[in-house]
Every structure is written in structure tokens, then in C-alpha cells.
Design brief:
152 residues, alpha+beta, two-stranded antiparallel sheet, 36% helix
Length: 152
């Protein structure tokens, strides 16, 4: 094996690489990339970025936090022709909504208890009829628009 071209010696408590063919120490190449350990670290505060950080988006407030009072919800296309839209219902609308739901539960429970399961078959056929479905969606859209307190 031939002798190495480079030799490492200690000069003044530092290690220096000597090129034996050139007869002197090796100087670092200026275009060489800087090694991570060679960069001196400085303690300084992080600089603010040029652009402000984007604000996190908040979801639409729901429940009693929608508009200060009342509730809010987003409609779906299966029952609202103008869906999707956000509806805000005030206290009067909540009372009306509660009464309608209570009446539907009582009437539906009575029909099932009095007539039994055949009423479910009849209601199923009515729900499959496109004209009936379209009429119910139109009625629901009109009623929901009347309940909406944000339009008023």
C-alpha cells in the first residue's frame, strides 16, 4: 500500500492536516457546504414572520350560543328545497317547534297503537311517492323559512 498523501499533526493544541505533496497545511475550500456543527450558535429571540399566522376558523355557533339566544342548525336537502342553509330559531320558534314535534309524536304513537303495523306500510308507500315527497319538502321549506329569525 502506498503512503497516504495527507498527514495529521498537532500544532498549538490544534489538529492540522498537512498535504505531503504540496508541503503545507490544507485550507478548506470556500465553496464547501457548511457542516451543522461548524456554525456558531447565538442566543436570540425568534424573528416574527413577514405574514401573520392565519387565524383558526371557528365552526358555526350552535345551540344557545347562536346569535346570543335561540338555536341554530344547518338544513339538509332531503327535507329542505333551499338546503344547505343555516337557520337560527329564536325562543318563539323553539316553542312552535316543540309543539309540532310533540303533536307528531302523540299522533304517530296513537296511530301505531290504535291501528298497528299496517299504518307503517301505508306511510312507507306514501313516502315513496315522488309527488307526496315533493309536497312535504315544499311544506317543510315554507315552515322552516317562517321559523328562521335571521331573515326577519
Amino acid at each position: 500500500m502506498p503512503p497516504s498523501r495527507y498527514r495529521v499533526v498537532e500544532q498549538g493544541r490544534r489538529l492540522v492536516v498537512i498535504d505531503t505533496q504540496a508541503g503545507g497545511p490544507v485550507h478548506p475550500v470556500p465553496s464547501a457546504p457548511e457542516m451543522p456543527g461548524e456554525k456558531r450558535r447565538r442566543m436570540e429571540a425568534p424573528r416574527p414572520s413577514d405574514r401573520p399566522a392565519p387565524r383558526p376558523t371557528r365552526p358555526e355557533p350552535r345551540g344557545r350560543y347562536a346569535g346570543g339566544e335561540g338555536i341554530g342548525f344547518t338544513t339538509a336537502p332531503w327535507f329542505d328545497k333551499e338546503a344547505p342553509r343555516t337557520i337560527r330559531i329564536n325562543q318563539e320558534g323553539q316553542t312552535q317547534l316543540g309543539i309540532v314535534l310533540l303533536v307528531l309524536l302523540v299522533v304517530g304513537g296513537f296511530l301505531i297503537a290504535a291501528i298497528g303495523w299496517p299504518i307503517a306500510i301505508v306511510l312507507g308507500f306514501l313516502a315513496l311517492n315522488p309527488k307526496t315527497r315533493d309536497g312535504l319538502r315544499t311544506a317543510a321549506t315554507t315552515w322552516i323559512t317562517a321559523l328562521d329569525s335571521s331573515e326577519g
